[in-house]
Every structure is written in structure tokens, then in C-alpha cells.
């Protein structure tokens, strides 16, 4: 049994577990640029706001409380990763462009993620973060996090078939957004490949391989620059999809 005097602290611990795990995995907040102490401070502030509103149940049995604590961590990680998957479609689309344009050989180490990233992929990733801030995506996910405690009370989340269906829907949506980002450049590069192939057949003396590398890189950059205004429309779609899928996921996890 847990002492009654510990109930407020245990309530705070339950809420903090979900919020902190969400911030660790959510887009923008999971970047290494943001100090760990800042994330902990923000999580503590939000936790105090939630606990002050009341309605946070606490189990009196120690084993049940530990299970609820683990479930809260899982809930926060699931919500944060779901939001992050949608934002990573920009990076995945850039990776497809890099692979087709030949930029994949110029991969560099990203110190924020400690992974190898290519040029256009890294560019689109940071552009997505700028769009995320410009379209108030950070406010959207924080509000969704706070509202989640009214839809899914602490320690009562259900990870069932409905939740798995929402995850599959999000992954499908992320793949669709990735294709929307990459298709214009990839289509132009396919046309460039066909054109170079025809030139190689018409002029056998022409070194198509040496000509193709700078030509494809130039075409990719030109098409990317020409279609860059359309990225704002993709960003709007991303925010609408993010809000919708977060609401669906919370509804699927509600008891």
C-alpha cells in the first residue's frame, strides 16, 4: 500500500512521465539543440498545470502504480513518435531526391542526430522545422498533450487494435507526403536520364556518364527551387494531418 500523503507526488510523477516522454520523442523538442534541463523544466511546468486542475487518479497498490507509470511513458512516446513520423516525411523525400540526383555520395554527419544525412535531405529537414514553427505546430502538439489527460486519464490508456490502425494510417500518410515532395524532382530526373540516353545513342562519342552527373544535379536543384513555394501547401496539409491523427490516436487510446 502507498501512503496517502504521497498521493500528490505520485500524481505529479504520473503526469510527468507522459509529458517528459512526449517531449523526448516529439518533433522539434527532440532535437539535441534544446538542452535537457530546458526539456525537464518545461515538462515540470506543464505537469504542475495538469495536476493543479485535478482529476489525476492514483493507484494505492505499488505494483499497479508501477504498471500505470510504464503505461504513461509508453503513451507519451507513442504520441511523440507519431507526430515525429509525419514531420520526417520531408527528410525521407529529400533522401529520395539525393539518391536520384547523385547527392547521396556527399553525406555528412549530423551532430544533432549522430547519423549520416545527405544534402537535400538535411535542407528539407530544417525547412520542415521552420514551417513547423511558422504554422504553430509546437503550440498544436503542446495543446494536444495537455488535452490528452482529459481524453485519456493518467494510467488508463488502452493500446489495442484501434491504436494500431491509427499508427498504420499515419505511416501511410507519411509515405504519401514523401511522394508528394519527391515526385516533381524525380520525374524531372527520369526525363533527364531518358534524354541523356538518347543523346548517347545519337552521339556515341559523347561521354554520357561524365555529362550526366552535373546535368542531373543541376536539374534537381532547378526543379527543387521552382517547386519550393509548393512546400507551404505541403506544410499546411501536414499540420491538418497531424492534428487529425493525434485526435484519432487519443480517441483510440481512451478507455
Please characterize this protein's 3D structure.
With 255 residues, this protein is mainly alpha-helical. Strand 1 and strand 2 form a beta hairpin. Helix 4 packs antiparallel against helix 5 and helix 6 packs parallel to helix 9.
Give the structure's gist in a few sentences.
By secondary structure, the protein is mostly helical. Helices cover 75% and strands 2% of the residues.
Query: What percentage of amino acids are in beta strands?
Result: under 5%
Radius of gyration: 23 Å
User: What's the main sheet like?
Assistant: 2 strands, antiparallel
Shape: elongated
How many separate domains make up the residues?
Answer: 1
**Low-confidence regions:** none
Number of helices: 9
Provide key terms for this protein.
75% helix, 2% strand
List the helices and strands and how they pair.
Blueprint: H1 7-25, H2 36-53, H3 62-87, H4 89-101, E1 108-110, E2 115-117, H5 119-134, H6 137-151, H7 161-202, H8 208-227, H9 231-253
Antiparallel strand pairs: 1-2
Amino acid at each position: 500500500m502507498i501512503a496517502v500523503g504521497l498521493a500528490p507526488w505520485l500524481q505529479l510523477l504520473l503526469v510527468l512521465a507522459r509529458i517528459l516522454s512526449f517531449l523526448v520523442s516529439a518533433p522539434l523538442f527532440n532535437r539535441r539543440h534544446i538542452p535537457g534541463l530546458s526539456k525537464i523544466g518545461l515538462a515540470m511546468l506543464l505537469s504542475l498545470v495538469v495536476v493543479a486542475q485535478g482529476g489525476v487518479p492514483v493507484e494505492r497498490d505499488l505494483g499497479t502504480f508501477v504498471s500505470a507509470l510504464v503505461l504513461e511513458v509508453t503513451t507519451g512516446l507513442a504520441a511523440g513518435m507519431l507526430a515525429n513520423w509525419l514531420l520526417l516525411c520531408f527528410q525521407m523525400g529529400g533522401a529520395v531526391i539525393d539518391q536520384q540526383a547523385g547527392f547521396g555520395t556527399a553525406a555528412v554527419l549530423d551532430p544533432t542526430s549522430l547519423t549520416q544525412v545527405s544534402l537535400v535531405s538535411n535542407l528539407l529537414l530544417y525547412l520542415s522545422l521552420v514551417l513547423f514553427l511558422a504554422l504553430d505546430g509546437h503550440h498544436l502538439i503542446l495543446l494536444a498533450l495537455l488535452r490528452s489527460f482529459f481524453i485519456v486519464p493518467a494510467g488508463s490508456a488502452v493500446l489495442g487494435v484501434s491504436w494500431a490502425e491509427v499508427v498504420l494510417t499515419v505511416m501511410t500518410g507519411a509515405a504519401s507526403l514523401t511522394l508528394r515532395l519527391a515526385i516533381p524532382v524525380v520525374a524531372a530526373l527520369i526525363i533527364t536520364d531518358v534524354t541523356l540516353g538518347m543523346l548517347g545513342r545519337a552521339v556515341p562519342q559523347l561521354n554520357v556518364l561524365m555529362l550526366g552527373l552535373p546535368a542531373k544535379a543541376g536539374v534537381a536543384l532547378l526543379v527543387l527551387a521552382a517547386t519550393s513555394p509548393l512546400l507551404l501547401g505541403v506544410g499546411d496539409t501536414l499540420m491538418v494531418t497531424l492534428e487529425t491523427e493525434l485526435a484519432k490516436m487519443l480517441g483510440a487510446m481512451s478507455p
